[in-house]
Protein 1
Amino acid sequence: MNADRKHTRARRCLWISLAGAIALAIVAAGCSTSKNDTADDVVDAGTGEPMPAPKATVEINYHHPGDSLMRATVTKFFGAEIIANSPGGGGRTASIVRFDGGVPVWEIKADKSLANSVSSFGRSDYTIKALDYGKLPSHFEQIIPDQGPPEPLDRGGFYVFTIERASGSTSYEAVKVLADGTLEAYAAEPRAGTSYAMCCNLAADFTTPVIVPDELAPDDNSMGDTGDAGDGGGDQASP
């Protein structure tokens, strides 16, 4: 792991540089994506209004000439356990974390079909610099889910964002969604099974379950649908 990586926790947003390869900008609940099912919304205890879903934007860097994005996958986990810590220099400690579960909730890949190649202007069309969770870029096809947008990021959930490039370079970021919609993110490298080496200095409560506000009861669905699937299928996520 790169000893110069820095982890910064913020209320509104979180930026992580992953060895110069991938930066995951996590935008808190103040920036929302549309959702199809308000029964999954969490109520703000102060206003009684549904809290918008967190939004994640992956900024991707390329260090090989002519490189491009081949595939992006977001995998959801339901719990985490620290199984080992490894102190390093500069007061930094890397941790091996084993996650529970492991369900891919969103996967896209470059569409290299003949029809798409004819309409594409070249490799630059696949060199995506910023990827919004749930928004399908041009010249890419969605694998998971089969249709429609992926589920919103779940408060209390753990996610691993995987970015695969044409050069063979792959980057990973492990994320925990907090109760208020902000996220903690750490550079990660896969280990055996569902374990990842994570750098550095994990928050003391990283593996502690998140207590979220009460979800809307079914009778509260009369508030109406909050969106039109704007967080997927290529539609622009609302800021």
Protein 2
Amino acid sequence: MLKAIIFDVDGTLADTEKAHLQAFNSAFSALNLRWRWSEAMYTELLAITGGRERLLHYWRLYETADFERHNPEIITTRLNLIHAKKTQFYTRRIKSEGIPLRPGIRELIETAHQQGIKLAIATTTTPQNVQALLETTLGPDWQTFFPIIEDASTASRKKPDPLVYRQALERLGEQPEQCIAIEDSENGLKAAVAAGLRVVVTPTAFTSHQVFEGAFRCYDSLHPASELLNTWKANCKSITSNPITKRNTPCPLQNAVRSPSI
């Protein structure tokens, strides 16, 4: 029986990565940094989860001479400053312009909630980013749908470490074989699988080149959500005592299961 669905946020609930990229570049300009990330660069950097970790990776790898001039305390302070400024730009953009949920997401959330399926969030983004997105897309009562949220403020280790998913499962009070995770990235997939979850992957343009080995299903979108939800529930009913990881099958994007045509 399907008891819960755990959602990633960025790229999964909404296609937010371009807005994050613009916010990073706005922060660089505001702080008089000469850094500028192209879409190709940002796609590469998305292999690193977490905004601060992404900044640190870039600074160390691509601005090595500047990085080596500073002691660890200055590096930490500067990273925190850049990331805080980036978050300001991102949340301001979300609140003023908005970013829509991906196709099928609202229907999936509402249908699952109506059917008594628990919903939770497991993400490496900040709580400010989660709130900005969900308030503008689901309204002020968005926590009615998502009473359980694990994010960058609660999980000390980022994906592909499974910690954030294990914390979500503990708060849900459910076994992983009775839950599904929804992700858009390879690191997210690895984290959820390591926590014992079956994973539905729905990539974006920023993650479509990644390898989704071990995914339960891959879709280009989650529309029509009600139909897909019925399929997942039927699969949950057929689960035996065998370890769930044995039921996963390779799911590279080029062989992805496509959502039925509208």
Protein 3
Amino acid sequence: MAGLGDKGLRPAAHREIFEVLKERIVSLVYEPGEPLNEKELALEFKVSRTPVREALLRLSQMGLVEMRPRVGTFVTLIDLRQVIQAYEVKTNLEALAAQLASHRATQAQIEALFDIIERFDTYDLVRDYSACISEDQEFHRIVRSAAGNPLLIEMLEELNVKTARFLQSIHYVIDDYQWFRDSLYSMAVAIREGDESKARQTTEEHTRKFLSQMSSRFLPQESSLSFQNISDNT
């Protein structure tokens, strides 16, 4: 990796380091509980320790690392309660993003959604579980970006970090591939056609069913009941 401390990149070094470290934590390159050495990271990125410390502080604010004075910095454990809470909030916010995207998405963004759906057909769901998770996350990232609301995007991106790390940790494999693909396709079509009601409805249905399937398999019983209550009340 090129040094981020080179002339012209130094002012943005901490932001770039933050993004790299965040991706490593979400994808479990850095496992929960693993120590992060500030000095070693500074050497890797060819910067002083200041931008590394700034990046770690931001990760700490997001709940991805814990900085213990005179002890060190560690990747946080995955908190199931926070995962549950994140999914509860995401249910409505993802639907709102799709609703806004139905009027604001560019042609390039719409084409990117359909490209992802086509790529799903090439994956082995068990062998390529990680790629499937990443593609699903990218689909929703494009929808969020197309919504064009910076506050909404920021909120969903932070929530997504918590849920994506959880999915990677359990090696989540899609239960019903055909439903999953058709659901994403319906969302993309609604956005392409500018149908805000359909975009919101299909996204809500997609999220509720996905959460119901996942919670029944991997999350504590009380969380399954919580997700069921969300479904019943929407």
